[in-house]
Write a structure and sequence with these properties.
The structure holds two protein chains of two kinds. Chain A is an alpha+beta fold. Chain A contains two helices and nine strands. In chain A, strands 1, 2, 3, 4, 5, 6, 7, 8 and 9 form a nine-stranded mixed sheet that branches. Chain B has helices at residues 4-58, 91-108, 120-129, 146-161, 211-285, and strands spanning 75-81, 112-118, 132-137, 167-175, 181-189, 206-208. Classes of the chains: A alpha+beta, B alpha/beta. At the A-B interface, strand 1 and strand 4 of A face helix 1, strand 6 and helix 5 of B.
C-alpha cells in the first residue's frame, strides 16, 4: 500500500503547497483531523487553525489556514483555503498582540459592538498563535 | 494639392494622436502584466475547486443539491462578461457576436433567455439591443474583487434554485496569448461531473458537519470563484487587446505621417521650382 498521497493546498490568491506527503493534520469544524493514505472520501469545512504536513522522509511543514474546505480522496487531498500562510512567515509577537487586542475588545464592548466579528477575529488570532507555537515545538 | 501649411498642421495633429496612442499602449502593457499575474494566481484555486465539484457530481450523495439537477431546458441564463472601457479592438464585439449567435440558437429551439451583464459595455449593448437583463454590474475596475461579482451571481443562482432558469452559462474571453483572445461559452449550472471515470460508483463522502450546510457553502463558493475567474481573465484580455489595438494605431499614425511628410516635401519643392522659374522668366524678359 502506498505510504504517501498527493496533497494540494490552494487559496484564492495563490498555490500554497503541492506535493506528496505522508500525513496531514488539519483543523476541521468538528475537531482536528489526521489524514493518512487510503483515507475514506471525506468533505469537511475548516475553521481557522494550523495545518501540519509530514513530508516524505519525515520533514514537517506547518501552515496557517483561516478557514475553507477540505476534500479527501484515497490518493489525493485538496485543501481549498480562504487564506493560507506558511507558519514561518508569521510573527509570533504580532499574533499574540492580535489575541490581546481581540480579547480586550470583547471585554470593553460598547452598545454598537459587533460581537460575532470580534469573536471571529479572536479565533483567527488565537489559531495563528497556535500554528506558530506548534512550529516552535 | 493642399498647401504646405495645411499639411504641416495635419502632421502635427497626427503626431499628437500618436503620442497619446503610444502612451496608452505602454500603460496597457504594464496593466496587462499585473492582470495576467492576478489571473495566474487565481487559476489553481479555480481548477481545484472545479475538480472537487466534479468528484461530488460523480458521488451518490445522501443530500442532492439543486445545482446538480438536470432539467429539461426551457429558460437559459447568460452571464455576459465585458469590459468597462472601449478602445480595445474587437474584444467586446466578438463577445457580443458569440452571445447573439448562442442566443439565436436558443430562440430557434423555443427557449427563452435571461441575461446578466458585467461591465459597462455589456450593460450598454443590451440596453440598445434589448434582451431581458436581470442584473448588471459596471465599474469593476482593474483589480476586480470577488465581492463585486457576488451580487449579480446571486441573482442567477436564486433564479436557478427557484426553477426559473434551467441552465446558467458564462460568456467571456479566454486568454490564449497576448495576440489572441477567444470568446467562449462555459456552462456553470447545472454542475457537470468530472471526466475522470475512476471516481464513478456508489460511494459517498463522509461529511463534517452535515452534507447540506457543507455543500451549500462549497457550491456557492464554487460558482463565485468561476465567475470571478472569468472576470479576471476578461480583464487580462482587455489589457492585451488594448495594447495590440494601440500598437497598431501608433503604427498607422506613423504611416500616415510618412505619407504626409512626402506630400509636404513635394509641395515645398514644387513651390521652390515655380518661384525659380518665375525669377528666370522675369530675368530673361528684362
Amino acid at each position: 500500500m502506498a505510504t504517501t498521497f498527493q496533497c494540494d493546498i490552494v487559496s484564492a490568491e495563490k498555490n500554497i503547497f503541492s506535493g506528496t506527503v505522508e500525513m496531514m493534520v488539519a483543523t476541521g469544524a468538528l475537531g482536528d483531523l489526521g489524514i493518512v493514505p487510503g483515507h475514506a472520501p471525506l468533505l469537511t469545512a475548516l475553521i481557522p487553525g494550523p495545518v501540519k504536513l509530514v513530508l516524505e522522509g519525515g520533514e514537517e511543514q506547518i501552515f496557517y489556514v483561516s478557514g475553507g474546505f477540505l476534500e479527501v480522496q484515497p490518493t489525493i487531498t485538496t485543501l481549498l483555503a480562504d487564506t493560507a500562510l506558511r507558519a514561518n512567515d508569521m510573527d509570533e509577537a504580532a499574533a499574540s498582540q492580535a489575541v490581546e487586542d481581540a480579547e480586550k475588545a470583547i471585554e470593553n464592548r460598547h452598545a454598537d459592538f459587533d460581537y460575532s466579528a470580534a469573536a471571529t477575529q479572536l479565533a483567527e488570532a488565537a489559531a495563528k498563535l497556535r500554528a506558530i507555537r506548534q512550529l516552535k515545538r | 494639392m493642399a498647401s504646405g501649411k495645411e499639411i504641416r498642421t495635419q502632421i502635427s495633429s497626427i503626431k499628437n494622436t500618436q503620442k497619446i496612442t503610444s502612451a496608452m499602449e505602454m500603460v496597457a502593457a504594464s496593466k496587462m502584466r499585473k492582470a495576467q499575474d492576478r489571473m495566474e494566481l487565481g487559476k489553481p484555486y479555480a481548477q481545484r475547486i472545479r475538480a472537487v465539484i466534479g468528484h461530488i457530481a460523480l458521488a451518490t450523495p445522501e443530500y442532492s443539491h439543486v445545482f446538480f439537477e438536470v432539467r429539461p431546458v426551457k429558460r437559459v441564463g447568460y452571464i455576459v462578461v465585458s469590459t468597462d472601457r472601449g478602445l480595445c479592438g474587437g474584444l467586446n464585439t466578438n463577445t457580443f457576436r458569440l452571445a447573439m449567435s448562442t442566443m439565436k440558437q436558443n430562440f430557434d429551439s423555443g427557449m427563452e433567455v435571461d441575461l446578466c451583464a458585467i461591465g459597462a459595455k455589456a450593460v450598454g449593448f443590451f440596453k440598445n439591443f434589448g434582451g431581458n437583463v436581470l442584473a448588471s454590474k459596471r465599474n469593476i475596475g482593474e483589480a476586480p474583487s470577488a465581492i463585486d461579482v457576488v451580487g449579480v451571481v446571486k441573482v442567477m443562482l436564486d433564479k436557478f434554485e427557484a426553477g426559473e432558469l434551467d441552465e446558467v452559462h458564462v460568456i467571456g474571453n479566454k486568454f490564449v496569448n497576448t495576440m489572441t483572445q477567444t470568446p467562449v461559452v462555459e456552462q456553470l449550472l447545472p454542475l457537470q461531473a468530472s471526466e475522470d471515470e475512476s471516481f464513478k460508483g456508489y460511494w459517498d463522502y463522509l461529511y463534517e458537519p452535515d452534507a447540506q450546510a457543507l455543500l451549500d457553502g462549497l457550491l456557492d463558493r464554487y460558482v463565485e470563484s468561476q465567475v470571478y475567474q472569468a472576470v479576471v481573465e476578461n480583464n487580462s484580455c482587455e489589457q492585451a487587446a488594448r495594447m495590440i489595438a494601440m500598437k497598431s494605431a501608433t503604427e498607422n499614425a506613423g504611416d500616415l505621417i510618412d505619407g504626409l511628410q512626402l506630400a509636404y516635401n513635394k509641395a515645398r519643392q514644387a513651390a521652390i521650382t515655380q518661384e525659380l522659374s518665375e525669377i528666370v522668366g522675369g530675368a530673361s524678359a528684362v
